[in-house]
């Protein structure tokens, strides 16, 4: 694989330009490990089933992006609908005709599979599973021990 853009990995204040690497194959470390950037690995496929197989097997669930020339106002084609379904089940967010944005900047954290492990804070867990409860007792000492 080769770096396609000479300006890749350059940064300007808070903007990092991604390094575009092409063609990435399944034998490469870049294919097998979770990417946090700024890198954009590009792979080639012959049949759409190859993409489905990859998404089924990959252990990471970071966002995905689909770029299509289909008219946004038109009903999605069967192929696009199937790809959306597979991406929705395998990745945390599907971006259509737009690059993936960082979660904290625009959306809440979203991750699936191994990408979601160890990322939720204690406060978020308590908010998600906690139930506010009022305790009542006929003696103040009981409440102080609770």
Topology:
Elements lengths: L1 E2 L7 E2 L2 E2 L2 E4 L6 H4 L6 E3 L6 H10 L6 E3 L11 H13 L3 E3 L6 H4 L15 H8 L10 H6 L1
Parallel strand pairs: 4-5, 6-7
Antiparallel strand pairs: 1-4, 2-3
Can you give me a brief rundown of this structure?
With 146 residues, the protein is an alpha/beta fold. 31% of the residues lie in helices and 13% in strands. The relative contact order is 0.11.
Observed structural traits:
146 residues, alpha/beta, three-stranded mixed beta sheet, two-stranded antiparallel sheet
Could you tell me the radius of gyration in angstroms? 22 Å
Q: Major beta sheet, specifics?
A: 3 strands, mixed
User: How many distinct beta strands?
Assistant: 7
* Shape label: elongated
Count of helical segments?
A: 6
- Poorly predicted runs: none
Distance between the termini: 62 Å
Helix percent band: 25-40%
Helices and strands, in N-to-C order?
EEEEHEHEHEHHH
Estimate the mean pLDDT confidence: 78
Structural description of this entry:
The strands form three sheets. Strands 1-4-5 form a three-stranded mixed β-sheet, with no helix packed on it. A two-stranded antiparallel ribbon has the order 2-3. 7% of the residues are buried. The longest helix is centred in the middle third of the chain and has 13 residues, at 78-90. Strand 2 (11-12) and strand 3 form a beta hairpin. The chain is of the alpha/beta class and 146 residues long. The model has no long low-confidence stretch (mean pLDDT 78). It is elongated, with a radius of gyration of 22 Å. The chain has six helices and seven strands. Helices cover 31% and strands 13% of the residues.
């Amino acid at each position: 694989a080769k770096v396609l853009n000479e300006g890749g990995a350059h940064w300007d204040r808070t903007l990092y330009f991604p390094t575009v690497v092409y063609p990435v194959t399944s034998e490469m470390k870049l294919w097998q490990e979770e990417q946090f950037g700024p890198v954009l690995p590009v792979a080639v496929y012959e049949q759409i089933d190859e993409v489905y197989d990859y998404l089924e097997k990959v252990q990471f669930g970071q966002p995905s992006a689909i770029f299509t020339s289909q008219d946004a106002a038109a009903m999605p084609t069967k192929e696009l609908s199937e790809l959306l379904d597979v991406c929705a089940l395998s990745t945390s967010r599907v971006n259509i005709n737009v690059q993936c944005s960082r979660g904290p900047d625009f959306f809440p954290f979203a991750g699936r599979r191994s990408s979601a492990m160890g990322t939720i804070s204690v406060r978020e867990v308590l908010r998600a599973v906690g139930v506010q409860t009022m305790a009542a007792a006929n003696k103040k000492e009981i409440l102080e021990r609770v």
